[in-house]
Design a protein that fits this description.
The protein is an alpha+beta fold and about 200 residues long. It has one domain (about 30-195). Helices cover about 50% and strands about 15% of the residues. The chain contains 5 helices and 4 strands. It has helices at about 1-20, 30-85, 105-120, 150-155, 160-170; strands at about 90-95, 130, 135-145, 185-195. It has a 4-stranded antiparallel β-sheet. The longest helix has about 55 residues, at about 30-85. The protein starts with a helix and ends with a strand. The structure holds heme C. Heme C binds near residues 69, 73, 98 and 176.
Length: about 200
């Protein structure tokens, strides 16, 4: 009995090792690997942005860091899928109150964002969600505000005037201010097309 259990445990370990080592082929649309591709793209975008943002804030303060958020965010979004050999994947940040009109949510993204906002209001800890259609896997990961974000997304009355001015010049229709920490700022939205 004991030995049988042990053999079963070893077999399981070997199977999971094999599974972990499996690299999904480009274009693979198997559900688990599509989610893994999406998670990886979302994490890469958010990690790279945060690292660059923190470095730029330390070096030149929030006015200098605005460049990272505007130029680098769009560039990284375009660049990251290619790094994992999945140029067909799209990754973007979006919000109900977007700063850059290029980040405007699709109707489906808007529905997901409203759902996240409602859940947060009920006190839920937000989790990423996925939706599968015939043509793609969609992955949505919520983004909450932290104290670090408020120098550019906080109450304008408490923001540096140079930051306000720089934002006003670049984003005349900016809606992304007035947040407190712990609020829903937006989400990362990743689309992984199914294999043709
Ligand atoms: C130095 C100023 C600055 C800081 C600090 C900052 N942001 Fe932003 N944020 C911006 C700018 C500028 C944009 C517009 C980016 C673009 O043009 O795509 C933006 C856009 C975004 C977007 C995309 C949706 C939109 O509104 O267009 C999200 C999501 C976001 N920020 C989240 C955050 C979070 C979360 C933090 C804190 C971890 C943060 N930001 C910190 C300046 C900042």
């Amino acid at each position: 009995m004991y030995i049988k259990k042990k053999i079963a445990a070893i077999a399981l370990a070997v199977i999971s090792l094999l599974a972990a080592g499996q690299v999904p082929a480009a274009g693979a649309d198997d559900s688990a690997s599509a989610v893994a591709v999406a998670e990886k793209a979302a994490t890469e975008l958010m990690t790279a942005l945060k690292t660059e943002l923190q470095a730029a804030m330390r070096k030149g303060g929030p006015v200098a860091a605005i460049d990272i958020c505007s130029t680098r965010a769009q560039a990284l979004s375009a660049e990251i899928p290619g790094r994992s050999n999945r140029p067909d994947v799209t990754v973007k940040r979006t919000s109900l109150k977007f700063r850059n009109p290029a980040n405007r949510p699709t109707p489906e993204e808007e529905r997901v964002l409203r759902n996240f906002a409602a859940q947060l209001q009920e006190g839920a800890a937000l989790q990423p969600t996925t939706r599968r259609t015939n043509t793609a896997l969609h992955y949505y990961r919520p983004i909450l505000t932290e104290p670090l974000c408020l120098s550019c997304h906080g109450d304008p009355d408490h923001m540096d005037t140079a930051v306000l001015e720089a934002l006003r010049q670049r984003y005349p229709e900016d809606m992304a201010a007035g947040y407190n920490a712990g609020e829903l700022r937006g989400m990362v939205s990743v689309t992984v097309p199914a294999a043709p």
